[in-house]
Amino acid sequence: MNQFKNVALAGGGSIGVAFALQFARAGKSVRIFEQSPERCALIPGEIDARLKMLSAAGLLEGEPEVVAARIEVTPELQSAVANCDLVVECVPEVLDIKRELFAQLERHVAPEVPLCSASSALPASSFCSELATRQRCLIAHPGNPPYLIPIVELVPAPFTDAAVVQRCSAYFQQVGMSPIVVQREVEGFVFNRLQGALLREAYCLVRDGVASVEDVDKVVRNGLGLRWSVIGPFETADLNTRGGIAAHARKLGPAYERMGKERGQNDPWTDELVANVVAQRRAMLPLDQWEARVEWRDQQLMQLARMRKEHAANDASS
């Protein structure tokens, strides 16, 4: 039930091409529907160039031309979705375009096949709610590009069948991606809400004369981003304070609340909320394993530091 072979991508822009690479290098047959003749002509060259880059980096199993042969580009939607096991829509973030395309997909795609959208912020209920088979529709929002950033957010609408979400989660895991299921629809989902919060503050820091664009990027690149490539924000807080995330919330929660209020955001970390987060962290990492996890984090960061040092040396010598 959870095996699949054929994927249809509706839209041949950057996300459609990037998704095609990820599915094809996992051995799936891919058809890209793209109605623009100009884009259809450009896509094969883009695929070849990226596959060669992946191969040179040791991130491709098999020869680039073998993987490329699994991808077909067509201007005909009906032929693109014929006999597919999964459809992912990758058109621009415009409601009317998505509504019209999903209406066409419903007519041409077998009713048991999941219909996903790579929407970055628009929820499925905003453009699929009128479909007769809306229970098979959901969001599958990837990091960009998905062949290098494996996260994919699965966001069901209130009408989405839970079994369809489970199937899609299994499908994306099969192709080497890391799916999460967002528990309710919110605009921007998780990825762009987190990214947006950082970007909003970055703009404010530049506006207020606190830091330059270059220095904000440097803080993320050489600080936050390094840690976040190994562990997420909750685990960062957990491991940064002896006593774990409960101690971190006691010490720094009031300061973060003041910072939020300064930006007009009043979202205090209530005792109930902190207790929920603490319970989830302690279920993943009991406090008696805290020291070992801190050591693991440091080992991971050491590997990153060594890799960056080697790359800097190579750049200097080239």
From TrEMBL:
Catalytic activity, EC: 1.1.1.35
GO biological process terms on file: fatty acid metabolic process
Residues in 3-hydroxyacyl-CoA dehydrogenase NAD binding domain copies: 6-184
Organism (species): Comamonas antarctica
Keywords, in A-Z order: Oxidoreductase
Record-linked SUPFAM superfamilies: 6-phosphogluconate dehydrogenase C-terminal domain-like, NAD(P)-binding Rossmann-fold domains
Domain of life: Bacteria
Annotated GO MF terms: (3S)-3-hydroxyacyl-CoA dehydrogenase (NAD+) activity; L-gulonate 3-dehydrogenase activity; NAD+ binding
Name recorded for this polypeptide: 3-hydroxyacyl-CoA dehydrogenase
Annotated family: Belongs to the 3-hydroxyacyl-CoA dehydrogenase family.
Residues in 3-hydroxyacyl-CoA dehydrogenase C-terminal domain copies: 188-276
Matches recorded under InterPro entries: 3-OHacyl-CoA_DH_CS, 3-OHacyl-CoA_DH_NAD-bd, 3HC_DH_C, 6-PGluconate_DH-like_C_sf, 6PGD_dom2, NAD(P)-bd_dom_sf
NCBIfam families in UniProt: PRK06129.1
Pfam families: 3HCDH, 3HCDH_N
